[in-house]
Amino acid sequence: MIDFEAWDLLLRQYVDQQGRVNYHAWKREQPQAISDWLSSHKHLPLPSNLSTAEQLALWINLYNAFTISTILERYPIKSIRPQIFGLPNWLAFLWFFQRQAYEIFNQRYSLAQIENQILREKLQDPKIHFAIVCASVGCPLLRPEAYYPERVLQQLEEDAYRFINNPEKVYYNPQTETLYCNKIFKWYRQDFFKVAPSVPEYIRSYLQTDLPLTASTPISYLHYDWNLNQRIS
Fold first, then answer.
1. pLDDT tens across 176-190, in order?
2. Which residue, 167, 173, 185, 219, is most buried by CB atoms nearer than 10 A?
3. For the chain, which residues make up each domain, given as ranges?
């Protein structure tokens, strides 16, 4: 199993409790640290017979490390969604997720492969959507620590609770009786349907305060902020 200590130390140093990343300091002080850690595992065999918890911790950490390392290479940037003449460059944006640029365990992966073929199809825990980050403001907050097999299930529960109780991601308007939520619940709704009858009922199970959410509650999806999730200090 991969030793996550190097990744954990970097997260504790450069990510604050609000999940914001100090890319400026990270790039100035340790620009190659993630790449060096990942490179040390390029040609190791993928451990066999890993438990579900071990696989979750492994692939969530790798997804986030690959993402952050790519951002560090390109930093400074304002948004993870490139633009051409002020318009979104969706082809370049998709290439960010689809390109098989990441080598680990003697195989090349894309972020999309890790997310869809391993985390979603194989491990099938929808809470991964509150843990893997695309480095934008709209995506889940990056934890200031690594995921560990012995704690990953609890960490994912905490991630879901933090995401759903963040009014920037989810809130309910009692006047209009409408649930406003992050587009993650739209893009991956089939994953949530595997464990709950509806998105509102899934959300209700994690809310601090009980709200009258049912399968028939109207949903409106919030604007997704693709600006870089960073701390300027």
1. 999 999 999 999 999
2. 185
3. 5-151, 164-221
| Mean pLDDT within 128-145 | 96
69 to each of 35, 74, 101, 150, how far by Cα in Å?
7, 9, 11, 25
Residue recorded with tokens 């100090």: 22
Is there a contact between 134 and 21 (Cβ–Cβ < 8 Å)? no
Q: Give the max Cα distance, the chain.
A: 57
The DSSP element (H or E) to which 178 belongs, if any, is strand 178-181
Residue 227's DSSP bridge partners are 79
Task: Give the type of residue at 218.
Answer: P
Inter-residue contact 132 to 119 (CB < 8 Å): yes
- Kindly report the backbone phi and psi dihedral angles of residue 71, in degrees, each rounded to the nearest multiple of 5, phi listed first: -65, -45
What's the rounded Cα separation, in Å, for the pair 29 and 33?
Answer: 9
Residue in the block written with tokens 């680990």:
104
Four-residue CA torsion sign, 5, 52, 41, 231: negative
